[in-house]
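INFO  loader      accepted 1 record
INFO  loader      residues=91
INFO  predictor   begin
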Amino acid sequence: MSDRLLFKFYKSYFDVASELNDKDRLAFYDALMSKEFYNIEPELKGMAKFAYISQKHSIDKQVEGWESKMKSQLNTPIQGGAVGGVIDPSI
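INFO  predictor   done
INFO  writer      dumping tokens
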């Protein structure tokens, strides 16, 4: 699993996302996070796809730079969390 903990969030990502409606903005942000942390290429439609394509060069360069620097590839997650899951407060 990826041990990448952070990435640069460029103002251009925010500027593009600000032009989207809520549904497309969320799809764009989800795609951005999945690509940056797990190198998952998104399947988007409409304006979310247009927004992602407009930033794809920067996104790809960040992933390539991290993989090159760490000499490791980002991997897809093995197991995801449950939607609406509860975290035990005693942890």
